[in-house]
Structures are given as C-alpha cells and as structure tokens.
Amino acid sequence: MRTTYAAIIAWLQDWLRDINWVHFATIPVFTGVIGWLINWSGLVMLFSPVRFHGVRIPGMRELASVLPRKIQEVPGVLQGGIGWQGIIPARAAKMGSIAVDKAIAKLGTPAEFYQQLEPDRIAEHIVTVFRPEIPELVDQVMVREHPRLWRDLPRPVREAVVDRVQAQLPSVVGRVTTEIGVHIDQLLDPKIMVIDHFQKNPALVVRIFRDFGQRELNLMVAFGFVFGFLLGIPVAVVDSIFGLWWLLPLLGVVVGWVTNALGMWLIFEPPEPRTYFGIRHQGLFLRRQDQAAEVYARIIAEDVITLERIGDFLLDGPRGDRTRQMLATALRPAIDQAAGPARAAVRVAMGPRRFDTIRDSVAREAVGRTLTPFKDPAFSQRQAEKIRVLIARRTKELPPRDFVEMMRAAIKEDEWMLYAHGAVMGLAGGFLHLAIFGVS
C-alpha cells in the first residue's frame, strides 16, 4: 500500500515538473471564452432572424420529406430552403398552441374572458357609436328594398321610423351582447386566435421571452464562461497526461455540448426548488414567475386576446358566418318592434314578403355595424386591463412545472441544434488551440 502511494506521489511530481504550464493554463481560458461564445451565439440562434433568411433550392421540398426527422426540424428545410430562422420565431405557431394548452386554456374559458370585458360596458359603447348611423342604415335599406314607398312617405313619418329604431337600439344591442355571451364558447376559439396571431407575428414570441427573461438570458451567457472554464480544467489535466493531438478537439466537442446543456438547465430546471450540496436552486425563469406572469399577461392582453381581435374573429374568423346568422336572428324581433302599432298595417301595405325582406335586410346590415365598435382600438385598449388582470392572476397560480412547460416546450425538441452548435464550436476551439500552442 505504501509502495503504491509512493509511486503515485512520484508520478505526480514528474507530471508537475514536466508539464507545459502555458499550454495547460490556456486550455481553461480557451474553453471559458468558447463557452461564453457558445451561449451568446446560442441566444442569437434562438431569436434571430425573425423571418427565414436563406435560399430556395428547387426539389429541396420534395427531398426534405425523406430526410431524417431531425434534419426536417431545421428551419427552412421543409419549406424547401437552406438558411436559418431563429428557433423561437420558427416555432411561433407551435408555441402558441402549447401556450393555449398549458396555460391560457387553464386561465379561463372564452365565457370568462368575455365576462371580464364587461358586456354592459360594451353594449353602452356600441349604442354610442352606432346611434348616429341609424338614419343612414334605415334610409339605405328602404331605398334599396322599397324606394317608391320610402319616397312617398312624408318626412315626419320617415323621421318617426328612424326615431323608433333608435329608441329600440339599447334593448337591441343588449340582446346582441347577451346572445354573444350565451354562445361565446361556440363562436370564439382562443387557440386559433393565438396560433394565428403568433404565426403572423413571430417577433411577438421573441418579445415575450426577452421582455421578462432578458436578465436570466444574460446570466446564462455569463455562466457560459464559468461552465467552460471549470470544464476546461479536467480537459487540461487529461490532455497533459496523454498528449494526443486529437484529444483536445474531441474533448472540446464534449465541453461545447455540456456547456449549452448546462445553460438551458440553469434557466429551466428544476421547476420546483431543490437543494444540491446544501445550496437551494430553482430554474432562473421560475424564480420570478410572478413578475413573468405580469409581463406575459400584459403582452397577451395588449396584442393577442384583445377586444379588437375578438371582434375580428367573431365576424371574419372561421366561425364568422355563424356569428352573423346568430346576430341577424337576434335582431329581427327588435326590428319588428320598431314598426310599433303600425306594424300590421305596414305589413299589409307592403305585402308580407316585402316586409320580411326589409326586416331581414336591416338585420343583416346591422350585424356588421353592431360589432364594429369591438374594433375600436382606443376602447379595446381600455378593456385590455380586465384581461391582463385575469391572465396575470391565473398565470401566477400555475404550478411551476406547467409554467416552465409553457415557455420551454416549443423549443425543447429543437434544443439538440443548440447543443450541436456548441459541440461544433468546441471542436473548432480545440483545433484553434492546437494551431496556436501545438500538442502538450
């Protein structure tokens, strides 16, 4: 036993005496700098460019279908191009889908979102905006459907018809907003809204990460040097022992891969606080979930699920025809009431078919104008605060694992590209060190 110990001491003394300290000391410095560059350029790969930059290659789209799945995941390949798009903006639609499944669907139903917007306030706003348009609407429909009758009516009678329609307006609009609330779960699909908006605005997804996570992302870059430097110490030891030319580039691959993996782990893992060697640790994003929730809620309320976009979706989205039909059905009885006591006489004078045609025309014309105030940006911005409060409260209540899943799931399957990028840079760093300092 004593002989073995003495042999080890002798070997260590020989190793320390023969070691090239410049060569040895520069390896951790190199791996530290490379680690910093890996994490810095990894962030660039995550976020930039927002749109695909590259060249389209004829036949590439067809070839992509037979390539390995991992290659197909590289931005642009399935679209028939070679180039790059930031991983996060390239997966904007997927992140939108996951955000809905993991968070927004748990934050509230469409009915809850709609109630937060205070339908009574919406109705008041619609009446205020729509009332001045009533004379033009009635005149337009009557001139189109029954021009002679409308022309022959005395002016006071025409004005009385308009006044009666305007008097009915608050009850009509109240019925419309109530009807929307009753059927909102069938008319509004937040998932389609979010996916479509994220896909058209990938920069918004980048903004979500940067607005509440820039501090953690900067810290990850700084830790790239720390991780690289610490990993470089055993690399220097192994390289000085074996002195093989190919060993440093090979170990550089390992260091590059591990540095990126540690950076991602630092941000996202573990979701729940854990203690390692007496030190309490939790993923950096998770430590500020409450602050992140406020930022996330503000972006969603101001840019994604807004009253303006809800109005667009209700009228022009995939279920717009159903919305228009439902609102027209809700408006018809109110138009009947607007005719007042003279309704029966007017119906006889015009004929039942003509009267019903005019009533239906007014209802159809009124549908689009009734929801036009939904698209008022100023009013939408005032109402956004209600949605922001709801989303912020519910996001803070999310279990940490669901919160981190919402932020990470969209890029998780693409993280291998970041790790591979780190490995390539580590390999290049190893060869660069060899070129400058030679073999140990």
UniProtKB/TrEMBL annotation:
Annotated organism of origin: Nocardioides ginsengisegetis
Protein name: DUF445 domain-containing protein
Annotated keywords: Membrane, Transmembrane, Transmembrane helix
Transmembrane spans: 21-47, 217-238, 244-268, 416-439
